[in-house]
Amino acid sequence: QVHDREGYSPLLENGQAREILRQGVRIELARLLAPQWEAVLSGEHFRQRANLGIFELDNHGLYFGVRHRY
Fold it and tell me: Sheet harboring 2-3: ordered strands across?
């Protein structure tokens, strides 16, 4: 959890200090295609909550690709 020492702006809730809580999770599956190549499928969820609504965020993603390994 993150806290500002001073208020962020006098325009936001009379200069109230910002408090943020961040949570995230990522799941990845990989399958070897060749000695140095793999197919990758991953899902991601990230959430940010704050006492000031302007700083709240929800992000979801699904990714697919091919990765080269050394």
Answer: 2-3, 19-34, 37-50, 57-68
* 65 DSSP β-pair partners: 40
Q: What is the pLDDT of residues 21-69, one digit of tens each?
A: 999 999 999 999 999 999 999 999 999 999 888 889 999 999 999 999 8
**pLDDT at residue 3 is higher than 90:** no
CA distances from 7 to 13, 16, 28, 34, 55 (A): 9, 5, 39, 54, 14
Q: Name residue, tokens 């809730």.
A: 13
Task: Give the integer Cα–Cα distance in Å for 56 and 20.
Answer: 8
What pLDDT score was predicted for residue 44?
A: 97
- The one-letter amino acid code at 41 reads L
DSSP 8-state secondary structure symbol assigned to residue 17: P
